[in-house]
Amino acid sequence: MKKHLKLSDIPKHNIHRVPDGYFDRLPRRIMERTAMQEEVAGIPAWLAHLSRPLRFAVAPLLLLFVFVGAYLFGTQQASQQMDFSIAALTNTEIMDYLDLYAQVETSDMEEFVDLNQNLTAEFLNVSPSAAEEELYYYQLDDLDY
Amino acid sequence: MEDKEILDKFDQPESRNLAFNQLVRKYQQKVYWHIRKMVIDHDDTDDLTQEVFLKVWKNLENFRRDAQLYTWIYRIATNECLSFLSGKKRRFFLPLHDITAELTEKLTSSPDIAGDEIQLKLQKAILRLPDKQRLVFNMKYFDELKYEEMSEILGTSVGALKASYHIAVKKIEEYLQQD
Lengths: 145, 179
What we know:
Strand content of chain B: under 5%
CATH class of the largest domain in chain B: Mainly Alpha
CATH superfamily of the largest domain in chain B: RNA polymerase sigma factor, region 2, helix turn helix motif
Largest sheet of chain B: none
Largest sheet of chain A: none
Oligomer: heterodimer
Largest interface: A-B, 24 and 36 residues
Order of helices and strands of chain A: HHHHHHH
Low-confidence stretches of chain B: none
Distance between the termini of chain A: 120 Å
Number of domains of chain B: 2
Shape of chain A: rod-shaped
Number of helices of chain A: 7
Number of strands of chain B: 0
């Protein structure tokens, strides 16, 4: 006849096991997490409400804003400085600079001629008749700017 | 160390960490085993145990001194277990028996389990109980808590807990008769 098995017949026994030294390590791990929580509590409330990946994304964004701000401020300062410097220069200094560093385009010449009609001959250092001969040779008189 | 001493130390900012460390050392095993019997898996238990103590850390300042620290921590651990299990069901749209099957599978395949055949059969029988009844059974049978303490932790009347435990024992003994 089959014996009726009762709960009281079974010895109480914990069948679950934990890794060696688990309970020695657990308090330290918990303390580390509480310390991390304290750090999170130290950051501004609006930032603390963001999820962790979003918080990491905010950092480079702020850095980008700082760089853009610094660049714009620097450009503005340089432009103001340049205006001042050009006003202080003499024509000879400007011409010397252009001779050395600037590449003058045809369009620049056109604008310059509009401002001062007598400058072309002076700039080219040729007589009007010689200039006309050159224009005839290259057929440049038909060109419109 | 007495709970009162730990709580008094916790109130002082300079000894706060030390007091909390002592609290964790005092209650870690009780919390761990309470959770482990419910979720079976060691890694899940490890995560939940840490969560429980983080909640204790956050809320200990607001803990009412007229209640027992032990039952308060136990209640947090119980709520974490129940939320974890119901979250698992919601996440995978599993009915009750599937969770039971999943936990039973963990019980039989895990290397962290060591017991003879009858012990394993008892554990399988316990896993067939609904979550709350399983909690009641574990707290009475394994942890040997008084019904009054259980009542404080679970917020259920002593009468209801007694009835729940006796029904659980009956169900388990019925299962143990099966081949």
